[in-house]
Amino acid sequence: MSDLVPDVSTEAAADDAADAAAREFAQRRGSSSAPDGSEIGRALVVVVGDRAAHGDGDTALGSLIVELLEEAEFHVDATVVVSGDEVEIRNALNTAVIGGVDLVISVGGVGVGARDVTPEATEALLDRRLPGIEEAVRSSGLAAGATDAGLSRGLAGISGQTLVVNLADSRAAVRDGMATVTMLARHVIESISDF
């Protein structure tokens, strides 16, 4: 019977190793920073979750996203935590867009539950969807074994001069999603800043 109980220390070690691999990947992608070594742009992280918004939940995924963004040469303005309320999510995303950040990454609220309304809040703000990024995040997440990433309803698109991307809220989905997003973000940001 003990063979069926997962070894938590082994799972934690695997998560730590995967996080280190994601950071190393982001660092290697550092060549995607501007040629003069400056930052690619400004970013904001939005963590969506009722428990986290009330101080009861874990916001470690937000910290992981910040770390991966910084290693990919983004300046992270802030991490904002909101509940799974469509108006709160939309307000947080809209504030980031109005504030002129280049990239907004939201994590959470992209599943099929009643409070998973991040895609609905995001869609109302987008001027142009980027289905290629949406599908890249889903397919790479599924290939990496992050089922929640593969089944995510998360969106990606442009609002004004800002790239907005929704990610699922598991460590695997964040690690894999960020590897995909940081690889594509510079090109998108350069393209939309040329207008």
Automatic annotation (TrEMBL):
Entry keywords, A to Z: Molybdenum cofactor biosynthesis
Listed pathway(s): Cofactor biosynthesis; molybdopterin biosynthesis
Nucleus listed as a keyword: no
Alphabetical GO biological process terms: Mo-molybdopterin cofactor biosynthetic process
Domain MoaB/Mog span(s) in chain numbering: 44-188
Matching InterPro entries: MoaB/Mog-like_dom_sf (IPR036425), MoaB/Mog_dom (IPR001453), MPT_Adenylyltrnsfr/MoaC-Rel (IPR051920)
UniProt KW Thylakoid keyword: no
Alphabetical list of Pfam families matching this protein: MoCF_biosynth (PF00994)
NCBIfam families: molyb_syn
UniProt protein name: Putative molybdenum cofactor biosynthesis protein
Organism encoding this protein: Gordonia effusa NBRC 100432
